[in-house]
Amino acid sequence: MKSSNSRKKIRNAFQSPDGHNGKASPTTLDTRFAKARQKLNPRRQRLVRAILDSADETCFLSSREMAKRFHIDATTILRTTQVLGYGSFADFAADLRQHFVSRITPYTALKAATREKRSVVDHVDDSLDKAIDNLNILKSDLDRQRVIELAKLIKRSRRVLVVGLDFASSLSYYLAYGLLALGFDAEAPIGTSGNLQYKVEVLTSKDVLVAISFGQCLRDTVESVLRARKQGVPTFGITDGSTSPIARYCDAHLVTPVVSPSFLNSYVAPLAAISAIHVACAHIDPKRSLNRLRPTDREYASGHRWYREPKGFNGDLP
Predict the structure, then answer these.
(1) Closest CA relative to residue 257, chosen from 102, 89, 86
(2) Does residue 238 sit in helix, strand or coil?
(3) Residue-wise over 119-153: b if at least 16 C-beta within 10 A, else e?
(4) Residue 24 confidence (pLDDT)
(5) How far is CA 3 from CA 21, 65, 214, 251, in A?
(6) Could you give the C-alpha distances from 187 to 27, 198, 204, 233, in angstroms and in order?
(7) Residue 168: phi, psi to the nearest 5?
(8) Which of 140, 132, 152, 163 shows the shortest CA–CA distance to 93?
């Protein structure tokens, strides 16, 4: 449990949207670079800075591809990341993706995209390519055991409160709706900060709070986690980096990429992760899930849920 002074410091770090005083907090990569700067010769310092400055293009590259981009050998890339304190290039690449996501804003993303000499079709293709990249990263890196552990936690919990605000509200609703269909008491609250606070305040150690936020993370979402932890409520996060506030303050978390060339995050990978959570929840106790869904089978078969053309309708529009 954190002291009131510690909680105050944490709240102060999120006083402006996604940052403090309008400035982004240093990322893990920024911090490592600052600490290792004296160990890097000027040439390698310029290399790291170039990688960070073009993170939108470098965050998906392999060590060989990155070396080719900067006209050096892959060994130089690997040794440079080792000086920064990374045990593997994969660890460096993960922090690089987090650095990119935490630095970009909707305006800067769209501004950068409009400067490129591409057709609209090219931009659409780029968006689809990034979505596929995100999904492939999730498939490769997703901690399956942690998904199962979350499903077990949800099963033994009295209530599940899913907190995802603004654009992430679509994700929180999707997660909560799927859990409701399986018979779990799940809710994704909407409305004011006060409404969210009241929902969190009635939680106990028998419940679980699932928080969804990315990049520097929304203040209300992070403060919900801190409030829940103070009350002894288990917390679980879905975020895009192991150093994000959601990852740091939740008891456990899943990492899913949201990198996009658009002015909004790509939620293809988070949706896939949530779908995996639904699947795990259904299959840890399949008998329970089947009993819950059996009545809906009759509803689906009856046709009352679905639109049917009126008798005598000839297909002409009004």
Answers:
(1) 102
(2) strand
(3) eeeeeeebbeebbebbbebbeeebeeeebbebbeb
(4) 54
(5) 23, 46, 25, 17
(6) 32, 13, 15, 15
(7) -75, -5
(8) 140
Q: Is 306 helix (H, G, I), strand (E, B) or coil?
A: coil
Report the distance separating Cα 9 and Cα 259, nearest Å: 29
User: Looking at domain 23-103, which CATH architecture does it have?
Assistant: Orthogonal Bundle (1.10)
What are the residue boundaries of the structural domains of the chain, listed by start?
23-103, 144-302
pLDDT: which is higher, 312 or 234: 234
Domain 144-302, CATH among 1.10.3720.10, 3.20.20.30, 3.40.50.10490, 2.40.30.70 = 3.40.50.10490
Predicted confidence (pLDDT) at residue 14 exceeds the cutoff of 50: no
Q: What is the mean pLDDT of the chain?
A: 87
Backbone angle region of 239, left / alpha / beta, with phi > 0 → left and psi within -120 to 50 → alpha? beta
100-151 pLDDT, tens digit per residue, is 777 777 887 787 778 778 899 998 999 999 999 999 999 999 999 999 999 9
Distances, alpha carbon 303 to alpha carbons 196, 268, 284, 295, in Å:
37, 31, 30, 13
Pick from 259, 265, 216: nearest CA to 18: 216
Most confident residue range from 60-74, 105-119, 288-302 = 60-74
Rg (CA), the chain: 23
CA 164/CA 198 separation, integer angstroms = 15
Contacts of 236 by beta carbon, 8 Å cutoff, 6+ apart:
150, 153, 208, 209, 210, 211, 250, 251, 252, 253, 254
Tokens representing 210? 């699932």
φ, ψ dihedrals at 160, nearest 5°: -125, 115
What distance in Å separates the CA atoms of residue 241 and residue 163, rounded to the nearest whole number? Answer: 18
Q: Write 291-296 long-range contacts (CB < 8 A, 24+).
A: 292/181, 292/182, 292/183, 293/181, 293/182, 296/181
CB atoms within 10 A of CB 108: 12
pTM: 0.72
